[in-house]
Amino acid sequence: MIPFGDLKRQYQTIKDEIDKAVFEVLESGWFVLGENLKNFEKDFADYCEASHAVGVGSGTEALHLALVALDLKEGDEVITVANTAIPTICAIVFAGGIPVFVDIDEKTFNMDAGRVEFLINKKTKAILPVHLFGSPVDLDPLLDLAKKYDLRIVEDACQAHGSEYKGKKAGTFGDIGCFSFYPSKNLGAFGDGGIAVTNNSELAERVFLLRNYGETTRYYHKTKGFNSRLDELQAAILRVKLKYLDEWNERRREIAGLYNSLLKDSDVEIPFDSQFSKSNYHLYVIKSDGRDELRKYLSERNLQTQIHYPLPAHLQEAYQYLNTPRGSLPITEKIASKILSLPIFPELTDEEVNQTANAVIEFSEKQ
Question: Which CATH class is domain 7-102+110-242?
Answer without folding.
Answer: alpha beta
